[in-house]
Amino acid sequence: MAPIDAVPFDLWHQIGSRLDPQDYIHLSMVNRTLYNLLRSDLTARNSAQSHIPYSREAKLASAGQITYRQALGRAFDVREAVATAQPYSAALVAYGDTFLLNQGVLCYLHCGDLRLLDVHGASRVEKVVTLARIKTLLSRSAHFSHAYARVDEREMQFSLMHFSDGIVTCLCEAPTRRASCLIAIDVRLDDGPTTGKLLFARRLDSTRRLFVRHDGSYLYYGTHSVLASHGHHEWIIQGMEIRNNRKLTDRPVQLENFVGSEIGPTLCFEIHDGFFYAISNQTGFQDEEVDWTSYYVCLRFPLSDPKKIEWRRIWRRQHREGPINDTWTDISLRVDETTKQLLIVECRREWHLAGSENSRTYYTQPIDCFEKEPSPEESSLASLATSTSESGHDAESSQVSPHAGLPDSFPVSALPDDILTSTLDEFSKPNYEPPKKRLKRNYHAEYPLEEISSTPRRDYILSKTKYRTYNRPASAFIDVVNDPLSRNTSFGSPSDRLRLRIGSRKRKCPIDEEGEEGEKGLLYRPEYTNEDGKPMEWSDERFQTRGIKLWPPDDAPEELYSLLCPSKRCGKVEAASDERCLVYSTQPATPGGQRPIILISFDPSIGFPHLKRLNARLSPSQNENPVDLDRHDVAANKPRKRPFSVTVSDGPAGSPTQTALRQFEEAESPDAPKPGYDVSRYWIRTEPAMYLSINRGYWLR
Q1: Is 0.70 surpassed by the pTM of this model?
Q2: Looking at the DSSP assignment, which residues form a beta bridge with residue 400?
Q3: What angle do CA 79, 28, 60 make, to 5 degrees?
Q4: Quick count: other Cβ atoms within 10 Å of Cβ 343?
Q5: CA 48, CA 69: separation in Å to the nearest integer?
Q6: Strands, E, within 446-564: which ranges?
Q7: Among 136-140, 247-251, 561-565, 567-571, whose mean pLDDT is lowest?
Q8: Cβ(601)–Cβ(90) under 8 Å?
Q9: What is each CA distance from 86 to 20, 75, 207, 557, in whole angstroms?
Q10: Which of 106, 127, 327, 368 could form a disulfide with 117 if both were Cys (CB 3.0 to 4.6 A apart)?
Q11: How confident is the model at residue 377 (pLDDT cuts 50, 70, 90)?
């Protein structure tokens, strides 16, 4: 038999073109011959365009910034780093009151300024927006004079709401006047030095559970503030065309009978591909005593016309699958890197089949329902909703759009063969649909069934789990947990210790090597068939766990643990993440201090210039002041210009993270205001990134 590397290149090209990044890189590692064969950028391009066309790596390759072979390698590195709990770097990147992370940009508030750092690009400069200028404008604006007149600008408080496509939205509040407004700021610097643009400011009648979503052209904000005739609050949404500062509807759109009040546990909102989406895992304001099926309720409408609302229901689960611990439930929307399709990702902690043990499972549901024709029940109810909207509303709904929205109940064409059906009466509104086929790739259990009741499980209660999410490309649970190191000491409780808890899985070999489901050595058989009897795509996949891992390990250097949790008590942890990094902030060490913002990166290409090797011991001089200013590349032969100082608090006096006076050097950037310009004239400017002066971060491998 000919050796495997004797196969012609044309055949390897066809094989490699059909492999995802994991299989492609693993195959290239078999031997040197295969490595050289699979270095072909043509083969790598076919693989990338088939499996990760909408990933950051593929976009960089398409733009010519990296090769497609490098794109596959980077995607593999990021996914493996997440799945094996081996991040590439960790750094204290900033101090701030609050932050948000989106599209690879970190936005945070620091000492009255809004600062933006391109994390994915490891930028050396930050955009800085002077919020004091905006406060002055708002306080003097005739449009807001009735709300903000005679209000001390120092009483105005800003909260970050959303960032996307170079636009930041903030909520500005004046508590003493009970006034608030939503502002949108364009922070792009495409034309060089600029004063920035305040795109619009809108006074809000209510901020109850306010959310904002936008892209570069349209903005939607909503509140859970309208009391409907059934006695429950409902969501109202207002759309804006950003460039023209124009409302898209005269009155806000009310999502009638759209159940769910908490963003995260029960519903989520997102803008994707020209549409606004609203997803809820609730079907009624009141629980039905006799019920069988749970659904996702999905709404969407074009960004340019919010009156054209479409809605669908997607099967979620059968209640007989077991009770749910709702305190762990979380729902969000993600974009598939392969198809660009929007996905519902939901975490549910369930007592499987009403057993004695409960565990988490992440479920993924593609939103493909709008590509299909609505069911007869949905079509008839949509017609009823339209006719109801044309007949008008009561006085309570007179201030909002007259759309009737969702029906308050759905007819059931058939009931199950269940004795409980005899208890139903004319007032019952049960939901029932036969169970759907759920592919293994669309759900990931924290533990296999055989491990649910095992002794070695190391779980953390909700109060110790500070943040939880799911990384779908890496098929990995990610938790930030507080795991204090237990030591025999009589000097009080141990200090908090933040760690990552990651549980991942991988696809099994398609060959049943152990004979688990049939004859040994044969391919796994598809689990399901379509209505036409043909095997369902992907139903032959099998997965195996890669275990639960904690990082850093117990024997990690103390410098790393003190970086991950700068103060003795972590307090409330605020966190955000994407496919390649995790950002979180902890409680400040001193009252009134700024919160340290820590970045953990799983992407080797995020290479901040100040990072040091963790295994390199700090010199005595560095140990005296760990948050040092060793910007040798800037400070060696260049005079410092126009310095200014910022006081940040990172720990008690004498500690490795003591309060210190930081000096920022002027960036040698074409976008920075030139010497002699009055910086106070600028709403937006560039400055050296704060992490350069903090100078505290490590390469971990």
Answers
A1: yes
A2: none
A3: 50
A4: 18
A5: 9
A6: 465-471, 476-482, 498-507, 543-551
A7: 136-140
A8: yes
A9: 21, 15, 41, 15
A10: 106
A11: low
